[in-house]
Design goal:
275 residues, five-stranded antiparallel sheet, 11 helices
Length: 275
């Protein structure tokens, strides 16, 4: 256009003013904007009022919502620092939390996934028909209902029937193995003292025997390759029934507890329980 000015049918290099003229809606412009030309409007029917810089904010926010990483977004937008993305991110805190949760936590997350992401475990997650959240401990998940009563075992979780272990919870398994070694050492010492005729050693031997049986049974089930990750592991009630149920069973009454001889456990687990 050295010889003549641009005409209506000719081309020219667009400037920022040209773009603003097509973006910004004003009464004086009439139908020159892109929104009016292509009949775009708000849901209310009102015309769209958007500046070019406003569009930049909108695009950056949409990119954040779509999952674009911070470095790529900064490079794409031509920003000097990644930290500048924050000024263009207009998502609410709730939206950010929901998007992060959606990335980290699958909809069908099991007990093991919830433990890893420190999400509350409900009683339903561990197969108990009760409202509320269970307590995750270093050994597993405590299903005791503290709304009804305080802990009756004074924190002795190893042999508590209300503690459930989760297959794949590595911290729990390692701690159980450590406790097995400690209790086995105490059991051997009590057995030596009993053989030497030490008074009361038989009671310590019986106590350690019972505790060691629980530990080894849980470890065996947790290390079993046929047990899938996320499986909730409990000591069978038949091998640790309440005194009331045991009395009812001895009297021939129905206590919903089978005799250990009637159970169909695998031989190795059966031997562990019988020690």
């Amino acid at each position: 256009h050295v010889d003549f000015n641009p005409r209506g049918f000719s081309f020219c290099i667009p400037t920022v003013n040209h773009i603003n003229d097509r973006f910004v809606q004003k009464e004086s412009k009439g139908d020159r904007t892109l929104w009016a030309k292509y009949e775009f409007s708000l849901k209310s029917g009102e015309p769209i009022e958007l500046t070019t810089h406003g569009a930049r904010h909108w695009l950056s926010t949409m990119a954040e919502s779509g999952g674009m990483d911070e470095l790529t977004l900064a490079n794409w937008a031509g920003r000097a620092k990644v930290g500048d993305n924050k000024k263009y991110d207009h998502r609410t805190e709730d939206q950010k939390s929901e998007e992060v949760a959606g990335l980290m936590i699958p909809e069908n997350a099991g007990v093991l996934e919830k433990i890893k992401h420190r999400i509350p475990i409900t009683f339903q997650d561990i197969g108990k028909d009760l409202e509320g959240s269970a307590i995750v401990t270093e050994l597993g998940v405590c299903e005791h209902d503290y709304a009804m009563s305080p802990c009756q075992r004074s924190g002795d979780c190893e042999t508590c029937k209300e503690l459930v272990c989760i297959k794949g919870f590595s911290d729990s398994l390692e701690l159980l193995k450590k406790r097995e070694q400690e209790v086995a050492s105490q059991f051997d010492k009590a057995m030596e003292d009993h053989e030497m005729g030490a008074f009361g050693a038989d009671r310590w031997m019986s106590n350690h025997h019972w505790r060691l049986t629980h530990l080894r049974t849980k470890i065996s089930i947790l290390e079993n390759e046929n047990t899938p990750d996320g499986t909730v592991v409990r000591i069978p009630d038949e091998y640790d029934p309440s005194p009331v149920k045991e009395m009812l069973r001895n009297k021939g009454l129905d206590a919903e507890v089978e005799s250990p001889d009637e159970l169909g456990f695998e031989d190795d687990i059966f031997e562990l329980m019988e020690l």
